[in-house]
Design goal:
Elements: H1 2-15, H2 18-23, H3 25-38, H4 45-55, H5 61-72, H6 79-102, E1 106-107, E2 110-111, H7 113-117, H8 119-140, H9 143-166, H10 174-199, H11 204-228, H12 243-247, H13 252-260, H14 263-274, H15 282-292, H16 295-313, H17 321-335
Antiparallel strand pairs: 1-2
């Protein structure tokens, strides 16, 4: 995996998920049209606020996974388009709610919706987008799809509450943190991939393989994000270094650092992340401790392990451009940290 990550580093920095976007370009245009149509409302604030967050939402990775998963399963119908839009609405709704809970002012270098329109409007428009997502699920007409995506939505909400309970708690263990990101991030990646196989009416074995791929990709993606928050690579993502630190977030590098540190180091983490008493030189010192205790490199190793498992899940599918592009996207999720 390390060699693969190294091979794709330059490509990743230059293109990111662009090969995946090109692979399903026509379908992605249709997805964007469905998104645009379904965020309309006679209540003017809804499309205004929804348009802001959707435009700032990134590369459409989750709906891309639905489109590519349907493609690798040989699907030739239209259902995957509406479901990909549904996946994006679920993701966007969670972003709106996340930013309110976290009190975030910036996302990818842009002002968050809550900083522009206030928390009440952000929560309510997030609710609107969740409702639109369920309307799209019902329009698809499959109880199986409805179960997969509604289960994922419930798991995401549980993950949000679990994270709230562990917020600013330096005693949080690695298993608790992994449970949070499996719920908050990986559940939607997994569901996005699985529904591609469902609409193609492929075997349960293939459904579960794509679900496993999505879960591994989602966890690896989040773990790398955890590391990037303490890396200059963040600047390339439109973020500043140390956002998680300033917010007092307990991510895997912090969990490892607290467990491995001496009492002086633990007192430092408690002051900064529990008491939120942060001083000018604390972030550089935090980064020094994370490197001293090998917390960033070990977090990346865990990300690589999950990515390797995701890649193994794809072994049952025939080699070809679709499979290779999905694997390249997986490798990019880890390679962007190097």
């Amino acid at each position: 995996m390390a060699a693969d990550a190294s091979r794709t580093t330059k490509q990743g920095k230059d293109e990111g998920v662009a090969p995946l976007q090109r692979l399903v370009a026509d379908d992605l245009k249709r997805v964007n049209g469905v998104i645009l149509d379904n965020m309309q409302s006679p209540v003017a604030l809804i499309p205004q606020l929804a348009g802001h967050i959707i435009a700032a939402g990134g590369k459409r990775l989750r709906p891309l996974l639905t489109l590519a998963s349907a493609k690798i399963c040989g699907y030739e119908g239209d259902r995957h388009v509406g479901l990909a839009a549904c996946v994006e609405f679920i993701h966007t709704a969670t972003l709106l709610h996340d930013d309110v809970v976290d009190g975030s002012d910036l996302r990818r270098g842009l002002e968050t919706a809550n900083s522009l329109w206030g928390n009440k409007a952000s929560v309510l428009v997030g609710d609107f987008l969740f409702s639109r997502a369920f309307q799209l699920m019902v329009a698809d007409g499959s109880l199986k799809v409805l179960k997969i995506l509604s289960d994922a939505s419930a798991i995401i909400a549980e993950g949000e509450v679990h994270q709230l309970l562990t917020s600013n708690d330096t005693e949080t263990g690695e298993s608790d943190y992994l449970e949070v990101i499996e719920a908050k991030t990986a559940a939607l990646f997994a569901a996005a991939c699985r529904v591609g196989a469902v609409v193609a009416e492929r075997s349960e074995e293939e459904e579960l393989a794509l679900e496993r791929f999505g879960k591994g990709l989602g966890i690896a993606f989040q773990l790398v994000d955890d590391v990037l928050d303490y890396s200059a690579e963040q600047q390339a993502l439109g973020k500043t270094v140390g956002d998680d630190f300033r917010d007092g977030k307990i991510t895997l590098p912090i969990v490892l650092a607290y467990r491995r540190g001496d009492e002086t180091e633990r007192a430092f983490w408690r002051r900064c992340l529990e008491d939120m008493d942060q001083r000018e030189d604390d972030l550089p010192h935090a980064m020094e401790l994370l490197n001293k205790r090998d917390c960033l490199s070990d977090s990346l190793k865990r990300a690589s392990d999950y990515a390797s498992d995701a890649r193994e899940a794809m072994s049952m599918f025939p080699d070809g451009p679709v499979k290779q592009t999905l694997i390249d996207a997986l490798e990019f999720s880890v390679a962007r940290a190097y």
